[in-house]
Amino acid sequence: MIRRHFFLVVALAAVVLMLGVGGFKLAFAKKEITGGGGGRATSVTQTVVAERPFTDRIEVLGAAKGLQSVTITSNTAELITAVRFTDGQAVSRGQVLVELKAEAEDAGIAEARARLAQAERDYKRWKTLADQGIAPRATAEQSLAAYETAKAVVDSARANKLDRVIRAPFAGRVGISDVAPGMLISPGTAIVTLDDTSVIRVDFSVPDRYLETLRIGLPINAQPDALPGETFRGRIAQLDTRIDTTTRAIKARAEFPNANGRLKPGMLVKVAIDKGVRTGVAVPEAAVQFEGEQASVYVITKGPKGMIARRTDVTTGITQDSFVEIRSGLKKGDKIVADGLNRIQDGAAISGGKPGGPKPDGKGGADRKAG
């Protein structure tokens, strides 16, 4: 009996000791999190809020297309006898691309030439007789009409033969084709695409409130989605004569030199038009935290027992060159946590204070809306 009571007392004491240790650890951890500067300090890097120039831009999307683009087709149903190009080949204007079966056309030309030769002989004979007064002048005139008709028939036969030879309407580069000798094609069947990509055109629409900014010759930048980090410079080549009454936007066309062929027709392109440069309060991108639409930073301030980080909501503008524009919530000279925001919470004690983040005059990168 005494031994059983002894073991019960020992077990109860062990349970009480475990509960006490667990409660102490929980209380200590809570104090570290919400101690308002009295807990263990987290080492962070800091940056000083400064001003930097921001470039206001109009950004819209457009689709790239060649200076000239066409899909080569046939206007007749016929067998292909020869393909005179290879996929991706650069071709000149008038170069033969495809030849179609033309035996009937060749025979038609031969027959038309024979009839022309006979009509010419008849005309010369009747003309001579008419000049000598032997034959009526009307007969000579009828033979002349027959001769002219025969010449027209020859021209028509030659034109029919030309339909069997398909040529490049302009200089450019052909795409990928599936046609081959022996294939029967129908009118309108695509043979191959042909694009002149020496200059790439991008058509885009701009709200009419920016009409005063637009003008022919205005420099413009393009950033294709397919070529991240690359910027192409061109100019506005043309503005439409009308504003769309539904969208209240005007259509513009920009042209970009494309000597290296990097730009391809069909690419989705972000077009940027600079409106002007202004100065604003800026912080590094890594120093801004977003929760839904709300942006915030951690401002470094003095607490009861040292430096602490206070979460502060801010209103952001554009993001440019790795900096976020701060329109309200901060002022020049404020010190904020530069990075590692996931390691701290509002009111957490901090230490360190090493400068961090990109320099305010850093360059490079693309623009986007931060919020």
Automatic annotation (TrEMBL):
Domain CusB-like beta-barrel residues, every copy: 202-274
Compositionally biased region (Basic and acidic residues): 360-371
Keyword terms: Coiled coil, Lipoprotein
Pfam families the record matches: Beta-barrel_RND_2, YknX_C
Domain YknX-like C-terminal permuted SH3-like: 281-350
GO molecular function, one term: efflux transmembrane transporter activity
UniProt xrefs under InterPro entries: Beta-barrel_RND_2, RND_pump_MFP, YknX-like_C
Region (Disordered): 347-371
Family of the protein in this entry: Belongs to the membrane fusion protein (MFP) (TC 8.A.1) family.
Name used for this protein in its record: Periplasmic multidrug efflux lipoprotein
Species of the source: Caulobacter vibrioides (strain NA1000 / CB15N)
